[in-house]
């Protein structure tokens, strides 16, 4: 049976692991402001805004959410891990939220305790937020940097997380198929993206049934091009293009799919019409670099080794000057997360790490060429979770 979220048991194990780390570090509580970290530990997903919110995990005591009143009724609908909810009306308010947070922590018996935190300001600081640091409101408490605690826990995925990523990859292949099918001469890439997103999302919901909902995205599937059409495909982080799709274009499609808040990444370079000799050469070198990366994935290899493998292919082809980014990055709850497949990162690959593999080359005024696959590092080497065709014939749109 397919699960659509992390089990309550796994959330409880994560909390227990946090408390063991707190005890070892002689800390009395963990105070978190990062919404992704809160979701990772509790399964509670909310829209993070200028309004401060925090999760407090005491060594002994109730796991408590501090936040705006508009979240009070939302918390119990999403999780049973959070045991207490304490709220203020709104930001900035007649009394600033951080003053409320200081009072809440005093009531929890933490006013003079040692707490690990990801923000000594006491808030994530989004959307123009301003406020006195929590450390100045609770001068007798000691706040210690624990910003890497949750990211380090997230690095190696559990069996439940891997299962969610596998399911995400399955639906990404469907969405990429629709993106490719809907490309037409004179079409606006946004219209194609919306059509593919809508159809893939509808099929996904109908197939998975009433219990499925996306947990960290507005739509189950997000499929599109971000304006990476023709010459704009040479801009890796393009956001839009003023023109429509036409014959001869190189097109880069991207897909993510939310399963339990986790998402794979699938990207494919497509060519609309018969490829030119130059397009064919650039495309094939990019695929060769990708294959070199796949061969390099193995336990004990460094993240930098993957990047070096693709750089070597591009250098041999005379394309080193067309590289604009490293080979990949971690995947899971966020579109980009550690580890980085970068020449400057000598961190060792470990079984259970999931990353994107996306070497690319980009010539300004001509085109960009990049596929991205989601790769699970295993004891045997690596497993491709996304499996959409990568060859030029399959990705040529006639």
Which key terms come to mind for this protein?
398 residues; 6-stranded mixed sheet; single chain; 4-stranded mixed sheet; 20% strand; Creatine Amidinohydrolase, Chain A, domain 1; 17 strands
H-E string = HEHEEHEHEHEHHHEEEHHEEEEEEEE
- pLDDT < 50 stretches: none
Q: What is the average of the pLDDT values? A: 96
Number of helices: 10
Fold and architecture overview:
By secondary structure, this protein is of the alpha/beta class. The protein has two domains: 8-153, Creatine Amidinohydrolase, Chain A, domain 1 (3-Layer(aba) Sandwich); 155-397, Creatine Amidinohydrolase (Alpha-Beta Complex), CATH 3.90.230. Helices cover 32% and strands 20% of the residues. It is built from ten helices and 17 strands. The chain has helices spanning 8-24, 35-42, 75-78, 97-107, 134-137, 149-154, 159-182, 189-208, 277-296, 303-316; strands at 29-32, 54-58, 64-68, 84-88, 114-117, 142-145, 221-224, 250-257, 266-272, 328-330, 337-341, 354-357, 360-363, 367-370, 373-378, 381-384, 396-397. The strands form five sheets. It has a six-stranded mixed beta sheet with strand order 4-3-2-1-5-6. Strands 7-8-9-17 form a four-stranded mixed beta sheet. A hairpin with a 5-residue loop joins strand 2 and strand 3. Helix 7 (159-182) packs across helix 8 (189-208) and helix 9 packs antiparallel against helix 10 (303-316). The longest helix is centred in the middle third of the chain and has 24 residues, at 159-182. The chain is elongated. The mean pLDDT is 96.
């Amino acid at each position: 049976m397919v699960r659509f979220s992390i089990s309550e048991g796994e959330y409880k194990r994560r909390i227990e692991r946090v408390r063991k780390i707190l005890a070892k570090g002689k800390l009395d509580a963990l105070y978190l402001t990062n919404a992704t970290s809160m979701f990772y530990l509790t399964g509670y997903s909310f829209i993070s805004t200028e309004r401060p919110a925090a999760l407090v995990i005491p060594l002994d005591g109730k796991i408590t959410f501090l936040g705006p009143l508009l979240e009070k009724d939302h918390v119990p609908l999403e999780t049973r891990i959070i045991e207490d909810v304490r709220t203020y009306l709104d930001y900035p308010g007649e009394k600033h939220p951080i003053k409320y947070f200081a009072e809440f922590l005093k009531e929890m018996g933490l006013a003079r305790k040692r707490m690990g935190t990801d923000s000594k300001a006491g808030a994530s600081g989004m959307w123009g937020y301003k406020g006195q640091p929590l450390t100045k409101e609770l001068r007798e408490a000691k706040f210690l940097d624990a910003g890497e605690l949750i990211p380090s826990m997230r690095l190696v995925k559990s069996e439940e997380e891997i299962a969610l990523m596998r399911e995400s990859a399955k639906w990404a292949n469907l969405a990429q198929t629709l993106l490719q099918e809907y490309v037409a001469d004179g079409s606006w890439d946004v219209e194609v993206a919306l059509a593919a997103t809508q159809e893939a999302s509808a099929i996904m919901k109908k197939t998975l049934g009433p219990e499925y909902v996306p947990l960290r995205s507005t739509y189950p599937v997000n499929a599109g091009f971000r304006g990476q059409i023709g010459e704009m495909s040479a801009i890796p982080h393009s956001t839009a293009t003023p023109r429509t799709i036409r014959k001869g274009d190189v097109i880069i499609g991207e897909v993510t799919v939310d399963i339990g808040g986790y998402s794979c990444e699938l990207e494919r370079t497509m060519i609309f019409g018969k490829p030119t000799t130059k397009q064919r050469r650039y495309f094939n070198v990019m695929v060769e670099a990708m294959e070199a990366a796949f061969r390099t994935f193995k336990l004990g290899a460094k993240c930098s080794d993957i990047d070096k493998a693709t750089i070597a292919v591009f250098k041999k082809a005379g394309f080193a000057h067309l590289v604009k980014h490293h080979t990949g990055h971690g995947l899971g709850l966020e579109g980009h997360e550690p580890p980085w497949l970068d020449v400057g990162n000598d961190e060792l690959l470990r079984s259970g790490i999931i990353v994107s593999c996306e070497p690319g080359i980009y010539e300004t005024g001509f085109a960009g060429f990049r596929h991205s696959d989601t790769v699970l590092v295993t004891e045997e080497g690596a497993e491709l979770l996304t499996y959409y065709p990568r060859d030029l014939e399959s990705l040529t749109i006639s």
